[in-house]
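Task 17 of the worksheet. Students: predict the tertiary structure of the chain below and write it out as structure tokens. Keep your answer in the requested format; marks are given for formatting as well as content.
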Amino acid sequence: MDDGVLTALLLGPLVAGAALFASLQQSEHSSSLPSEEHPLAWLIDSPLVLNPSVQPLDALVRSRRYLIQLTTLCSAALLVHLCTSRWTWRDGYTSKSEGTRTWYFIWFSTLVAGALFTLKRILRAFEIFVWTDLSTFDIVVILLFYQLSLYVMVRLGRRAFTLGELGAVGHGATAMFMETVYLTSAKIWPVTTLYVKTFRLPTPLLTFQLALIPGAFLTGFLLSPLLVLSRNIAQKPYRRLRLPHEKLFHQRALAAGFYVLAAAIVAVIVGSWTQWCLGGQNPWKWVVLYIFEGRRNWSRVALLGYWGLLGTISVGAWERQLAKARKYRQEGTASGAVDAGEKDASLLSVNGRRKFFHALAVMMFAPGIAFDPAFAHLSFSVAFSLFIFVEYVRYFALYPFGASVHLFMNEFLDEKDGGTVILSHFYLLTGCAGSVWLEGPSRILALTGVLVLGVGDSLASVVGKRHGRHRWSASTPKTIEGSVAFATCVLASAWLLSVFGLVESFSIPRYALAVGFGSVLEALSLQNDNLVLPFFTWSMLVLLRAVTGT
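Model answer:
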């Protein structure tokens, strides 16, 4: 049974190790930044350089060594929590008081941070060097933030995360938080370090991502009182309100307050930080000019129009179809047998609806990644931040869009979306974007997420359900036929991209082996495929190339 422990503990270090090898491969082929002929010659400003003696790619290699130590440190902390949790649950040491549990967690998290720091010092005395590049400040901040993020996800998500997803998201959140800390400290005290310790090249793309995604969470945190009030009012029936006739007025007032204050936070706090990191350039002006700086001055505008057209048509068509389905269900049926059949059809349609968006991801994202990965990088960051605000609107029932957004998204939920927070669309976007955000040395790597989810996972589901006969095990519905379809279709798609010159040539046996590993993971793992599969397959592609040396 896959309980997610291995995913939670090992996926982060695996991706970090693969990222280090990817930067080593890139550094070996270029002593400076990529030339215009290099497959990663993204049209973007040069990365921030603090000292000319350290080239950007050399700094990236050093920073990703930090990333490996960061992820292993977080995994060690999670392992301590898992062992302690199993011991306390076995002996019944639990508290029903929310406040007591919070204080216990704060106390225990501080104890874990101190224990791991002490462990580092003890091992160093025996000449066993672990986490050697992490300062005391790094260890304290990393451990406290990682454990805090786990607690927030567990308490607020309420069954939305599996253990594997919890560990993976915690690793990613901590890495992004530390990138923000390192970039900010390098701008404040540039003389204290030779290079910026970010785990991607410190270009404006990274600056905007750190402004957009952490900035969206910061906005929600600062405006949490308004959000909580909005949800509480929306959940209470009219008869339980002291002034029922003012419910709509309060909802409108809270929503207006959130929208206005959120815009102010983005414009003032987030915008000012971004401008400061960009060396005084106005971020809004920078984005507008950047849109017209593609390979053609119209190419990025056309790409935006293409994305907007596909998104509008897809959402509009689904909204119309779902409205018809809801109307049909409201009319009722004549017998229970028909009701059961309708229920089965509905369950099947949910899978079809979700796989439709996987196919849509290929149509939307593949052209952007293939022709303009830098713009796709920025666009993914914008989309993720917009998803965060849409989830605020849905979960906290912000007027006037909260109810309609909730009803629309509710039609695409399955058994994996059992928590209060809906995460599937976040995972799908992250899976497609992660291969770009990791900034690997080739375009075929950048397209890993889109191919694995949009092609492999979708066709594995279709083939497995229709033609699958041989299950991997009695405990899983996944079939060997579906896994073969997964690997075959991803490999064929990558080969076609190479034939048409959209990606560089690659080793077919090595690619087939990496995708084969991914197909087995897809069949045996109970974690969310959208989150785990792309990062695992990306890591396998990089590590197999490092092992074979080609």
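Marker's comment: The chain has two domains: 1-200, 295-327+347-371+411-548. Residues 31-41, 334-338, 340-348 have pLDDT under 50 and may be disordered.
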